[in-house]
Design brief:
Layout: H1 22-36, E1 52-62, E2 65-73, E3 87-97, E4 108-111, E5 121-124, H2 129-140, E6 143-145, E7 148-152, E8 164-166, E9 174-178, E10 182-186, H3 196-206, E11 217-221, E12 227-234, E13 240-241, H4 242-252, H5 257-277, H6 286-303, H7 311-322, E14 342-345, E15 348-351, H8 362-365, H9 372-386, H10 394-412, H11 420-441, H12 447-458
Antiparallel strand pairs: 1-2, 2-3, 3-5, 4-5, 6-7, 7-11, 8-9, 9-10, 10-12, 11-12, 13-14, 14-15
Helix pairs in contact: 3-5, 4-9, 5-10, 6-7, 6-11, 7-11, 7-12, 9-10, 9-11, 11-12
The structure holds adenosine-5'-diphosphate and the ligand O=P(O)(O)O[C@H]1O[C@H](CO)[C@@H](O[C@H]2O[C@H](CO)[C@@H](O)[C@H](O)[C@H]2O)[C@H](O)[C@H]1O.
Length: about 450
């Protein structure tokens, strides 16, 4: 595998002279994917059997590498928490080879037994350095491949031959780092429309906001519907994420309030830039927000029985929101802010991953919302961090909350600490989301948000 110099697109013959018809291809891949998908961190339907699997689009990206969009269904069983459809679309990149490659052991999906790929071995292409390099080549050269469109910001040069490595982070998507210079995030669960993780950073870059790495290339599909598939952006090579830094500080007994204060300030800066980039929104109606939060709580309690005893107490937080003053104006927000979404490089904080909460419909995530949603997300994250160690360190979380809100207030012109009712409702809504998220993805972590649920329902603080 070349690690420097030019990488050229291979000119060998395509995998098959004519692309296999969809039904045939699924005869080869169906059983393999049905077993492999639920084992992937990014697969959202782990809690229900994959009863339907269909091919939405197939493009031979380069010889031996297939780009697929597949639909997975669960026999009409809705996702926990409702709202989300009973089925999802996922993006897969597969390498199909004759021989088993020991160095790609972890990427193995299986050996096809029937259909057009019978006897061939199928891998996740993102673990394959050769395929990862060819993908970067595609992104360097704008153009099309079937329904796929590769586009880029012309002003930023992307050198060829940067060695790829797959990021080993706990992720909702899959990311590849190229030569410690760029990071490519491939969205796994695909929803129609422009992904806010492309739309927002592009808009913020146009505002001159330097707290968010600006996209340099991206790709999308036009079939079966328009959707963003991946975004390449500069890699902050010496950065540590806020979660790792917070855990380090907790382990060594170090103060984290200076960092939390600066983080609050940085977040206020991002909110101001977001308001400028997406102008023209009014105030949210607290009554309808409270109704939506109550609905989410009810459907979450339907899926996660442990929530049920706390529903009356949690509902009171949403009831109180309906009578709160209107708070800061609604605007575009981050939507899933937590310590893992902020990176500290040098002495500066950067904010990443503007996708919003992955279980919400894309249209919802792009609407104007109260900035209190983001603040509540970060405050919940201090609590998550403080609960990673025994004995639990509530004082540590409380000091970080104070410092973060203080830093935010210094720049934003309003103080989250003076919006107790709003904050309580948004923290409750966030904790309910976290209960659902953990129940679906990391059941061992469920006690963390459940502890907050108990506190918010019983004591209300
Ligand atoms: N521009 C960047 N520079 C350095 N690391 C990054 C950058 N963007 C993302 N990362 C790393 O990749 C991880 C996953 O990125 P993220 O956008 O949060 O993906 P996901 O939505 O799949 O969780 C982050 O936690 C961070 O460690
Ligand atoms: O993958 P994303 O970063 O988009 O976010 C999802 O996964 C997060 C966990 O990786 C989850 O965050 C929760 O756990 C964090 C610790 O791992 C904690 O800092 C957050 O406060 C807590 O919400 C996030 O909710 C989910 O959307």
């Amino acid at each position: 595998m070349p690690t420097k110099g030019r990488v050229t697109m291979p000119k060998t013959a395509p995998l098959s002279p004519r692309p296999a018809p969809a039904a045939d291809l699924m005869a080869s891949l169906g059983d393999l994917l049905r077993q492999w998908l639920p084992r992937q961190r990014w697969f959202a339907g782990k809690d229900r059997p994959v009863s339907e699997l269909g091919l939405l689009s197939m493009t031979e990206l380069f010889p031996g590498c297939l780009h697929l969009l597949v639909h997975t269904g669960h026999g009409g069983v809705p996702a926990p928490g409702g709202g989300a459809p009973a089925g999802d679309c996922y993006q897969l990149l597969l390498v199909v080879r004759k021989h088993l490659l020991p160095r790609l052991g972890r990427a193995l999906i299986g050996r096809a037994e029937q259909g057009p790929l019978a006897g061939l071995t199928v891998y996740d292409a993102l673990h394959d350095p050769r395929s990862a390099q060819l993908l970067l080549e595609r992104l360097r050269h704008p153009g099309t491949a079937g329904p796929l469109r590769f586009e880029r910001a012309p002003s930023v040069p992307v050198p060829s031959g940067l060695p790829p490595r797959l990021l080993e982070a706990e992720q909702s998507n899959t990311s590849l780092v190229y030569g410690d210079e760029f990071i490519l995030k491939l969205f796994r669960r695909i929803q129609p429309g422009v992904n806010p993780d492309l739309e927002v950073p592009v808009a913020l870059a146009a505002q001159g906001c330097r707290r968010v790495p600006a996209p340099v290339a991206w790709f999308r599909t036009t079939h079966p519907q328009e959707a963003t598939l991946g975004v390449l952006q500069p890699y902050l090579r010496d950065a540590s994420d806020g979660w790792a830094l917070a855990l380090q500080a907790l382990a060594s007994g170090d103060d984290f309030t200076v960092q939390a204060h600066e983080l609050g300030r940085a977040m206020a800066e991002v909110h101001l830039a977001l308001a400028a980039a997406f102008p023209g929104t009014g105030h949210e109606d607290n009554g309808s927000t409270a109704a939506a939060m109550t609905e989410r709580l009810d459907s979450a309690a339907h899926s996660v029985p442990a929530l049920r005893p706390f529903v009356p107490g949690l509902r009171s937080a949403f009831g109180a929101l309906a009578t709160c003053d209107s708070g800061p104006p609604a605007q575009r927000v981050h939507g899933d802010l937590h310590l893992g979404q902020v990176l500290r490089a040098g002495r500066e904080w950067f904010v990443i991953d503007f996708e919003g909460e992955p279980t919400r419909p894309l249209a919802d995530r792009c609407t104007a919302q109260s900035p209190v949603r983001d603040i509540a997300g970060m405050l919940r994250s201090f609590d998550y961090a403080a609960r990673q160690r025994r004995p639990w360190r509530p004082e540590w979380a409380r000091r970080c909350r104070e410092a973060f809100c203080g830093g935010y207030a210094a720049l934003a012109g309003w103080d989250p600490r003076k919006k107790h009712g709003l904050l309580r409702a948004y923290e409750t809504d966030r904790a309910v989301y976290e209960v659902l998220y953990e129940a679906r993805h990391r059941p061992d972590w469920l006690p963390v948000p459940m502890a907050a649920i108990e506190r918010l329902a019983v004591r209300g603080d």
